[in-house]
């Protein structure tokens, strides 16, 4: 029997939190920042919000999934739309092409290499005329992410030091920053995503960052987001607990709708690991144990899940990770 997960009621976000005694004095979380192309991706104000479900296709109660590549060659030029020809849905492909032609990447430079974005569109005929686009992904992100592994600290330091002044006063803090590497032999530019509260901790991080280099950098600047955690051994802190996707949705807000995912086509049930970076940056969501390409749109959607809680609580769980269990059935929002 199929399970349709269509009703999501909000519950207190505290249900996803628990207190533990911290045993590590310092930890860090590092993730590729959102690609510049995705950050500036826009549509014309008069463009349709969703693709039109072709009337003839809907009348036949036909649905389907269209995967496309969008190739941009200029900031004010419509993309070239290339559908995946593994399945033939000519009417649906035409609807997606008409819709996708309204995308632009205005932050592209005139001499930039082509930007290639990928996106999935699902046409669901059994619920009105529902069309669900996935979050676009940048085809270059894999190569960018691989370059993060070559980052080195010229001073041979694995992490920032915990200043004795901060230890004496019991200062603890989570800090999130964005680093932009523009050349292999230069220190990155630092932008604070969360304003530091303790100057001695801030200076420790800035000194550490000044010694970072990315010797394998190629094909333009790369930005990454990093969370530094300063906590004193034995202190209690709030962390995220492992949970099911439904529990997580009940404790979240502002998730993207419409959404439609068939977990039965993803080798369900399965677990994913979510590192919480919201609202300052997209979450990092990765598969555990095995990999399945059919799960990628779901993982991208989960990157924008934001807990329905206060800003101070958001800071407390920033950079924490949890295991999320995905059931069998369908999510239809």
Shape: globular
Structural class: alpha+beta
Q: Give the termini separation.
A: 20 Å
Strand content: 25-35%
| Number of contiguous helices | 9
Give the tally of β-strands.
Answer: 24
**Rounded Rg:** 22 Å
How would a textbook summarize the main sheet? 5 strands, antiparallel
Task: List segments where confidence is low: pLDDT < 50 over at least 5 consecutive residues.
Answer: 1-15, 17-25
Task: Specify the helix fraction band.
Answer: 10-25%
Give a brief outline of the structure.
It contains 9 helices and 24 strands. With 333 residues, the chain is α+β, with helices and mostly antiparallel strands.
What does this protein look like?
This protein is α+β, with helices and mostly antiparallel strands. Helix content is 20%, strand content 32%. It has nine helices and 24 strands. The strands form eight sheets. Strands 5, 6, 8, 9 and 10 form a five-stranded antiparallel β-sheet that branches. Mean pLDDT is 85; it is low at 1-15 and 17-25.
Structure characteristics:
five-stranded antiparallel β-sheet; four-stranded antiparallel β-sheet; disordered N terminus; globular; 333 residues; alpha+beta
SSE order and pairing:
Elements: E1 4-5, E2 17-21, E3 26-32, H1 36-40, E4 42-43, H2 55-59, E5 64-72, E6 80-83, H3 90-100, E7 103-104, E8 115-124, E9 130-133, E10 137-138, H4 141-147, E11 152-153, H5 164-169, E12 173-181, E13 189-192, H6 199-210, E14 212-213, E15 222-230, E16 236-240, E17 243-244, H7 245-250, E18 252-253, E19 260-262, E20 270-275, E21 284-287, H8 296-302, E22 306-307, H9 311-317, E23 321-326, E24 330-332
Parallel strand pairs: 1-24, 17-23
Antiparallel strand pairs: 2-16, 3-15, 4-7, 5-6, 5-8, 8-9, 8-10, 11-14, 12-13, 12-15, 18-22, 19-24, 20-21, 20-23
């Amino acid at each position: 029997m199929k399970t349709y997960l269509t009703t999501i009621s909000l519950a207190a976000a505290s249900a996803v939190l628990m207190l533990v005694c911290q045993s590590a004095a310092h930890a860090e979380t590092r993730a590729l920042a959102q690609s510049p192309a995705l950050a500036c991706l826009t549509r014309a104000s008069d463009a349709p919000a969703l693709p039109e479900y072709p009337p003839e296709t809907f009348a036949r109660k036909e649905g389907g999934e269209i995967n496309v590549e969008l190739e941009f060659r200029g900031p004010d030029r419509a993309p070239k739309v290339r559908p995946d020809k593994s399945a033939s849905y000519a009417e649906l492909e035409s609807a997606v092409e008409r819709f996708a032609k309204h995308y632009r990447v205005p932050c592209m430079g005139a001499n930039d290499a082509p930007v290639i974005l990928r996106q999935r569109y699902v046409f669901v005929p059994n619920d009105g005329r529902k069309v669900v686009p996935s979050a676009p992904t940048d085809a270059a992100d894999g190569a960018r992410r691989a370059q993060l592994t070559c980052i080195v600290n010229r001073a041979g330091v694995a992490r920032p030091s915990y200043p004795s002044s901060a230890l004496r006063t019991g200062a603890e803090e989570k800090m999130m920053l964005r680093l932009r590497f523009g050349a292999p032999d230069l220190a990155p530019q630092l932008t604070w995503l969360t304003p530091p509260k303790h100057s001695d901790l801030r200076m420790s991080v800035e000194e550490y960052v000044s010694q970072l280099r990315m010797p394998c950098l190629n094909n333009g600047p790369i930005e990454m987001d990093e969370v530094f955690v300063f906590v004193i051994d034995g202190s209690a802190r709030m962390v995220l607990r492992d949970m099911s996707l439904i529990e997580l949705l009940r404790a979240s807000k502002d998730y993207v709708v419409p959404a439609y995912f068939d977990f039965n086509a993803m080798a369900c049930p399965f677990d994913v690991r979510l590192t919480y970076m919201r609202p300052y940056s997209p979450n990092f969501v990765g598969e555990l144990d095995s990999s399945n390409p059919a799960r990628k749109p779901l993982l991208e959607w989960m990157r924008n899940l934001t807990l329905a809680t206060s800003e101070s609580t958001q800071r407390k769980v920033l950079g924490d990770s949890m295991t999320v269990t995905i059931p069998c059935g369908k999510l239809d929002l």
